[in-house]
């Protein structure tokens, strides 16, 4: 039986005075922040009191009013003689006397009650399943005496990928997938249970790949099995010629969804293979958003609206020959993407209310945001066969609220739609079938690395933001759990 507390220091602390009530309040406000006024309080106060930074791994002292990043919270513990702090991203309590994060059943209860409370204010994105170790896992934990300390500077999770002959398009997409936070957490907890042979299931192969990436090894990996499976399941990507990384990314998401649907026994839940809007597979829960199209008749002002699921947002870069100003930033591209366009002349649309073709306006907006927003900057002109190398700036953080659908008869859009950049795929060359792909990935929230096949090198955020950018990956900062 697992003990109620893994730390005798914390057991004494929580049973003294109102320390446990203080912990509950801090958890409610600074870890969960489920309603707007609590999120506002969290945003205004969550910064290191020493360096004024908002991370990485911000902690709140449980014995006084002090917030510190992972470095300055240690200095505070030494200077003030305080032992306990709570990490504000995952809600784990750190004991300075033990030099480690601790387990305690009261902490589990606080986390569960706050998740239940937050469910009243947020729609369901996906279920947060607590880990209940099996008897075999408990025995392994008991017998495993070696401890591995994972610091923010660790390189665990970084592995090069060998180029098998024009497979850089595959390697860079795999690197982005391996560093997608929620996808990583899902596969490392082994939520996939498959009835098929591993070689025939892409979900099994990706699950195994996550294990190989995060087992601490450093030698580069070769992915012939993944390449062969892709060739057999997505024949348009077959062959040793160069392929488009975006096509491979879309094919990978589709195959993961398909194989999940066919093989996964997900606690008796139905996974709809054809109805992507209701699919409960992990791919759709993370990557699927909703794109709303509104067509407004200029004669009767009637509105026709449709919403379609989407895995990414393909953004035009424009051209000087098309007239007007070409976009210079990701925000420019999004503004152009969601700008109303006039449909007249040969483009008139039949109005069901008027009973005839009328001039109208059409506007695309984002109805629902996914956990991971993926932008494809459309650099390849299929008709001309050339690449558009226009410089497009993109930010580390982006607020998607201005680009969401707004209707008078609906509830206001949730206020926190901020996303942070965690991966970028770049292409160098003159066309999609020539050149080379590399990826930049964020590691432990603040460190960035360039993945050039089997070569991994550290870079700065400035280097990433100065790169050309082809596929941009952004992760939602505040998530809603059931």
From TrEMBL:
InterPro entries: Papain-like_cys_pep_sf, Peptidase_C19_UCH, Ub_carboxyl-term_hydrolase, USP, USP_CS, Znf_RING/FYVE/PHD, Znf_UBP
GO MF terms, alphabetically ordered: cysteine-type deubiquitinase activity; zinc ion binding
Keywords: Hydrolase, Metal-binding, Nucleus, Protease, Thiol protease, Transcription, Transcription regulation, Ubl conjugation pathway, Zinc, Zinc-finger
Compartmental location: Nucleus
Residues of the UBP-type domain: 5-121
Entry's EC annotation: 3.4.19.12
USP domain boundaries: 159-477
Keyword Transcription regulation: yes
EC class: hydrolase
Catalytic activity: Thiol-dependent hydrolysis of ester, thioester, amide, peptide and isopeptide bonds formed by the C-terminal Gly of ubiquitin (a 76-residue protein attached to proteins as an intracellular targeting signal)
Entry GO CC: nucleus
PROSITE patterns: USP_1 (PS00972), USP_2 (PS00973), USP_3 (PS50235), ZF_UBP (PS50271)
Pfam families linked: UCH, zf-UBP
GO biological process terms, semicolon-separated: protein deubiquitination; proteolysis
PANTHER family tied to this protein: UBIQUITIN CARBOXYL-TERMINAL HYDROLASE, UBIQUITIN CARBOXYL-TERMINAL HYDROLASE 22
Family stated for the protein in its record: Belongs to the peptidase C19 family. UBP8 subfamily.
Annotated protein name in UniProt: Ubiquitin carboxyl-terminal hydrolase
Lineage: Eukaryota, Metazoa, Ecdysozoa, Arthropoda, Hexapoda
